[in-house]
Amino acid sequence: MELEWNARLAVTGAAGALGTVLRAELARAGIDTLSLDLREPALLHANETFLRCDLADAQATLRALQGVEAVVHLGGISTTAPFGAVLSANICGSFHVFEAARLQGMRRVVYASSNHVTGYYAASDKVRPDMPHRPDSFYGLSKAFGEDLAQLYWDKYGVESVGLRIGSCFERPRDRRMLRTWLSHRDFVRLVGCALRAPRVGHTVAYGVSDNPGSYWEADPAGVLGFKPLDSATEHAGPLADGEPEPPLQGGRFVDVDETSL
Ligand code: NAI
Ligand code: 15L
């Protein structure tokens, strides 16, 4: 575990799947953490304080993040959803987190973006972080907004941030697509550590992916984060490699979901 970072750190979405993984490592590393979520995590560690906070509520978010120097922003809707839901949790929620960062002169925001910002690229494409967004859903669109918000807050206010376009971060790959998109929990935590510690990031966007053969992405072509994955989906391929055919587009099933309705 390489997270050594002693700024006052907050984690949004603390009770979620990745928040739970990250907080366990922060606890092991003895890093004091302010954990925020709509719901209380099942297990609170000795190093952390929990505050219930709806990120869609501007004043509550500004209050909760007082005195924080860096935030790992994982909170929000993490899958396809109707526009209203992503509007409040992801679009307004991220705006409130970046406003807190600006108002308090925070050192850095590490923003959980998603590979679904570029889900409409073909599975045969090799996508770099600087290529145009091609979101595959309102969810992906909300993450594209979050990345542009981060760019604006760097250009206009000097708030440093790293947008991590996380692939598929689960204990192990679950289907054939994930043999290309998988990010192991161990690599996720190390990647967040790199995003917090890299000396100068300005506004950087990178994919979060393990060392998988045939990855869809050039993760961090400029090497800003200095991240080297330790895991590979190959170790888990087994029957997945001969399972269902690969989806034609990188976003997989997100491309086929229609969430439109007024
Ligand atoms: P999750 O759905 O398990 O956790 C999200 C957490 O955010 C939940 O605990 C939820 O209560 C909280 N939340 C939702 N709306 C909120 C609000 N309005 N105010 C405060 N908290 C709120 O998601 P997971 O898997 O932990 O992902 C974390 C982040 O990483 C998400 O932003 C997700 O979009 C992103 N991500 C995750 C990937 C993965 O493979 N797990 C892949 C790509 C991106
Ligand atoms: C995501 O953005 C989701 O949060 C996660 O649940 C997975 O669906 C992942 O993308 C993926 O593309 O596999």
- Rg, rounded, reads 17 Å
CA-CA gap between termini: 47 Å
- Broad CATH class: Alpha Beta
Helix percent reads: 25-40%
What's the number of helices?
A: 6
Provide the CATH architecture.
3-Layer(aba) Sandwich
Please provide the ordered H/E string of secondary-structure elements: EHEEHEHEHEEHEHE
| Ligands (ions, cofactors included) | 1,4-dihydronicotinamide adenine dinucleotide, D-galactaro-1,5-lactone
Q: For the record, what is the CATH homologous superfamily label?
A: NAD(P)-binding Rossmann-like Domain
Query: Strand portion, in percent?
Result: 15-25%
Total number of domains? 1
Number of strands: 9
Give the low-confidence spans.
Answer: none
Largest sheet: 7 strands, parallel
What fold name stands as the CATH topology? Rossmann fold
Strand order of the largest sheet: 3-2-1-4-5-6-9
What's the overall average pLDDT, rounded?
Answer: 95
Shape, please? globular
Name the structural class: alpha/beta
Q: Which key terms come to mind for this protein?
A:
single chain, alpha/beta, Rossmann fold, about 15% strand, globular, binds 1,4-dihydronicotinamide adenine dinucleotide, binds D-galactaro-1,5-lactone
